[in-house]
TrEMBL record:
It is an enzyme of class 7 (translocase). Residues 159-266 form the Helicase ATP-binding domain. It catalyses: ATP + H2O + chloroplast-proteinSide 1 = ADP + phosphate + chloroplast-proteinSide 2. The lineage of its organism: Eukaryota, Viridiplantae, Streptophyta, Embryophyta, Tracheophyta. Pfam families: SecA_DEAD. GO terms for cellular component: membrane. GO terms for biological process: intracellular protein transport; protein import; protein targeting. This is chloroplast protein-transporting ATPase. Its EC number is 7.4.2.4. The keyword Oxidoreductase does not apply. It comes from Salix viminalis.
Length: 266
């Protein structure tokens, strides 16, 4: 029996243990099918990963304003071309709004903090933009992170999350908290009801991040999935349907190919 079209979109937020370019999420790969695909009727669409990466590299050569330097606590990544000060000034008002909400969030009980997710989702469904929801959403994630894993995202990490949400590139050095940064825009974009993929380089890191920082969105009521090698089609489909899914770049690419082969064979 023919399956409904695959029309859901997702956000891809790569994560890496070394210096990395965190790719933007504004462009999505859409497709529609009437066949039974690998990912199932309500699955998340796959990103044209290679083409998007190539396009990004070319864009950054031509337009440095699409790059935010966050390394060294907002300093020095591009050898003097961007000290990070302009980035800090650009996002300072929003960081201030998030910080102003910290005392309010700290006063909430665990259940009250968790209820914030449902309230934010409702506002998103009523048409309020994610940009307007960002300060409160980031404040919620910061407080949940403090309670669940004992880490409070610093202002520079909030800025990194905002840069990713805006669809720009953020480069951060090893140890500056890319893993925690990714949770901020992932949670925000998941409020829209569209799945978010956090992409890393190997199964170990995907599993580690899912089990560690994945506790934060789980605490807040979101479903967090994980794609690993040797998973069955049903297991993959179930995990891709989560609000946030951790996956490696290779698994993501091959699942996209398998999805298209399944449709071509219908």
């Amino acid at each position: 029996m023919a399956a409904p079209p695959l029309v859901k979109r997702f956000t891809s937020i790569p994560s890496s243990p070394s210096n990395s370019l965190l790719l933007p999420h504004q462009s999505f790969y859409k497709k529609t099918t009437l066949c039974s695909s690998f990912f199932g009727a309500n699955s998340l669409n796959m990103l044209n990963y290679g083409a998007k990466t190539s396009k990004l590299v070319n864009n950054t050569k031509r337009k440095m304003c699409a790059v935010a330097s966050l390394g060294g606590l907002l300093g020095g990544i591009f050898k003097g071309t961007d000290t990070g000060e302009s980035t800090r000034k650009q996002y300072a008002p929003t960081v201030s709004l998030i910080n102003q909400l910290e005392a309010e969030m700290s006063a909430l009980s665990d259940s009250q903090l968790r209820d914030k997710t449902a309230a934010l989702k409702e506002r998103a469904q009523l048409g309020e933009s994610l940009d307007l929801l960002l300060p409160e959403a980031f404040a919620v994630v910061r407080e949940a992170s403090k309670r669940v894993i004992g880490l409070r995202p610093f202002d520079v990490q909030l800025i990194g999350g905002m840069v990713l949400h805006k669809g720009e590139i953020a480069e951060m050095r090893t140890g500056e908290g890319k893993t925690l940064v990714a949770i901020l825009p992932a949670y925000l974009n998941a409020l829209s009801g569209k799945g978010v993929h956090i992409v890393t380089v190997n199964d170990y890191l995907a599993r580690r991040d899912c089990e560690w920082v994945g506790q934060v969105p789980r605490f807040l009521g979101l479903k967090v999935g994980l794609i690993q090698q040797n998973m069955t089609s049903e297991q993959r489909r179930e995990n891709y349907m989560c609000d946030i899914t951790y996956v490696t770049n290779s698994e993501l690419g091959f699942d996209y190919l398998r999805d298209n082969l399944a449709m071509e064979n219908c």
